[in-house]
């Protein structure tokens, strides 16, 4: 991984020379690719080095199986020696999926794969948001029939992640809030995760320290330095969830994205206050009582940093989320039964607390009264 705060064009020029890159398949976003400045910078470098390139951008915000099949066909016809994914989380996921399924065949629903190709095209990912951390993770999201699947494999992980904070400087307030809260939620979820390790805790807590304070500033009064700190925090959050994966807020978010077209980070924010209260207050529901004291110590440390030791966690996070403009807004009434059934059970299994469905059902029902 490289974090480039300035001089990124000279770095990329030398990198492409050293790696003998001659033909590039660029997976990109739409307007974001242009507004971020990535298009001008990347095309200038590629043209100066006489590197051949083509674009793939004809896919949905949330990658679908049909989009993947189309991109994979284009990739195989073009036969490049490098893939560059440059954009937000969906773009990076699509780049990762195309590279992975050029190597493997199998069932993305069960994550059982068989290698079909010994050669592996180099994959470089550059985020233009802060962000999903997808440049550091070994999994990608893929949708089929409005159901979300997490495709996981060690070869899903990019060969190189390059963080260029300048590419995030022109992000609008809503995009900043959505992607920034996704990163903050990832960091907190990694920290309270049943799969947490000493290493993931270190990445997660450093990410929380960077993201929690800087996110409201990045939304409401951004500066270059604040954007830089957000980029660092999002990257660290990605490193944390690459170890732990996510928990309940993410597990329940996919319904709101697929059914209500709510962007991912905003969708995560909808149930986050509920699960924050559950995971930070209801220790009687902890899944591993032999390690309860260690978990309580971690939560005490987190509460101390957030200055919320004696504050209701649900209200605290609801206010924080409102401060960055992510109040729950739905195009139609929530189908509570459908929302509960659409949960990603694998992600839910990482949650530290047992969940009483009646209580969660009541919370989701209450969201309809906010409209």
TrEMBL record:
Domain Alcohol dehydrogenase iron-type/glycerol dehydrogenase GldA stretches: 12-164
Gene Ontology BP terms: antibiotic biosynthetic process
Family annotation (Pfam families): ADH_Fe_C, Fe-ADH
Span of domain Fe-containing alcohol dehydrogenase-like C-terminal: 176-297
UniProt EC number: 1.1.1.202
Keyword Ligase in record: no
Record key words, sorted: Oxidoreductase
CDD domains referenced in this protein's UniProt entry, alphabetically: HEPD
Source domain of life: Bacteria
Family annotation (InterPro entries): ADH_Fe/GldA, ADH_Fe_C, Alcohol_dehydrogenase_Fe, PhpC
Keyword Oxidoreductase in annotation: yes
GO molecular function: 1,3-propanediol dehydrogenase activity; alcohol dehydrogenase (NAD+) activity; metal ion binding
Residues passing through the membrane, by range: none
Matches recorded under PANTHER family: ALCOHOL DEHYDROGENASE, HYDROXYACID-OXOACID TRANSHYDROGENASE, MITOCHONDRIAL
Protein name as catalogued: 1,3-propanediol dehydrogenase
Organism: Porphyromonas macacae
């Amino acid at each position: 991984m490289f974090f480039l705060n300035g001089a990124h064009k000279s770095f990329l020029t030398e990198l492409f020379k050293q790696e003998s890159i001659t033909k590039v398949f660029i997976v990109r976003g739409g307007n974001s690719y242009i507004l971020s400045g990535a298009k001008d910078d990347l095309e200038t470098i590629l043209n100066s080095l006489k590197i051949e390139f083509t674009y793939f951008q004809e896919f949905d915000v949330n990658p679908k199986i049909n989009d993947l099949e189309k991109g994979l066909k284009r990739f195989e016809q073009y036969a490049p020696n490098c893939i560059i994914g440059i954009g937000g989380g969906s773009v990076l996921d699509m780049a990762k999926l195309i590279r992975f399924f050029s190597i493997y065949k199998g069932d993305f629903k069960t994550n059982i794969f068989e290698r079909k190709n010994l050669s592996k095209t180099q994959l470089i990912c550059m985020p233009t948001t802060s962000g999903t951390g997808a440049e550091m993770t070994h999994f990608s999201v893929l949708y089929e029939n409005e159901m979300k699947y997490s495709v996981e494999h060690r070869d899903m992980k990019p060969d190189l992640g390059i963080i260029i904070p300048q590419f995030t400087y022109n992000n609008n307030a809503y995009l900043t809030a959505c992607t920034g809260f996704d990163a903050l939620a990832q960091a907190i979820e990694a920290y309270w995760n049943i799969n947490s390790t000493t290493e993931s805790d270190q990445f997660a807590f450093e990410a929380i320290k960077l993201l929690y304070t800087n996110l409201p500033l990045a939304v409401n009064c951004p500066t270059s330095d604040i954007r830089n700190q957000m980029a660092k925090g999002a990257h660290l959050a990605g490193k944390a969830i690459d170890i732990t994966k996510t928990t309940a807020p993410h597990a329940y978010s996919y319904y709101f994205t697929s059914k209500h077209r709510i962007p991912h980070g905003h969708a995560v924010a909808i149930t986050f206050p509920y699960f924050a209260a559950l995971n930070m207050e209801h220790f009687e529901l902890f899944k591993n009582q032999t390690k309860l004291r260690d978990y309580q110590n971690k939560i005490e440390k987190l509460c101390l940093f957030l200055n919320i030791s004696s504050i209701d966690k649900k209200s605290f996070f609801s206010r924080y989320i409102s401060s960055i403009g992510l109040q729950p807004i739905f195009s139609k009434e929530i189908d509570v039964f459908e929302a509960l059934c659409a949960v990603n059970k694998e992600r839910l299994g990482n949650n530290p607390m047992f969940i009483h469905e009646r209580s969660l059902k009541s919370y989701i029902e209450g969201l309809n009264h906010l409209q």
